[in-house]
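Deliverable D5.2: sample structural annotation.
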Amino acid sequence: MTGAAALVLYGKLPIPGQVKTRLAPRLGNRGAAALAEAFLRDAAEAYAELDGIVPVVAAGPDPSNSFWPTTFPAPWRIEPQGDGDLGERLRRAFRREFRSFPRVMAVGADHPSLPLDRLARFAAESDAVWPARDGGYAAILLSRSPRALELFDEIPWSTARVLDETAARARRAGISLTLYPETYDVDEPPDLDRLRRDLRERDRRAPGFPRHSWEALSRFDPAECRG
């Protein structure tokens, strides 16, 4: 597939007590927010390097906060997420970006382990989805078509049925989704150990290595980070 694609990263201001709250029992509110910020900084650096990609951050809840232009300078474009459930926010972003791009990709900020080379291949697909272990997906890419936005309708978000329901809607819409190997979110305390093991086995000099996330993990002593 040729032609530029928009990559929309969904991010939330890393405010203690408001992000990654399920990690707080292990890291504390400040530690959880610091890790969320590290995820965003890694994404800001890595995704801007992808060829043929125009990076957009869907910023919530306050897109005017100075954190966004500081962390996501050009070539990033900052757009508000807006209100509504995830389906409404995805539809809004895809509809907007389809006005300028033939393909649009959405990725969450909970996946610092996505390898950059594999993400580049994903970004070159026509229609694709990257499953997550929890039954959702880490990323979705769609080509502009009359029925593309139907994939966000009436999906039971935040359940283990997200991927299955999305795939079913794609079949009904005549959209053939390329399925990528399963990855994982970093939402629960056991995910921290999985991420640490994953990153420990990688070449830290490789392009796209999530150095901010690795450094944040290395600073945390789970037995002490509770404040």
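Annotation notes: The longest strand covers residues 5-12. The chain has one domain: 5-219.
The annotation will be released with the project's public dataset once the embargo ends.
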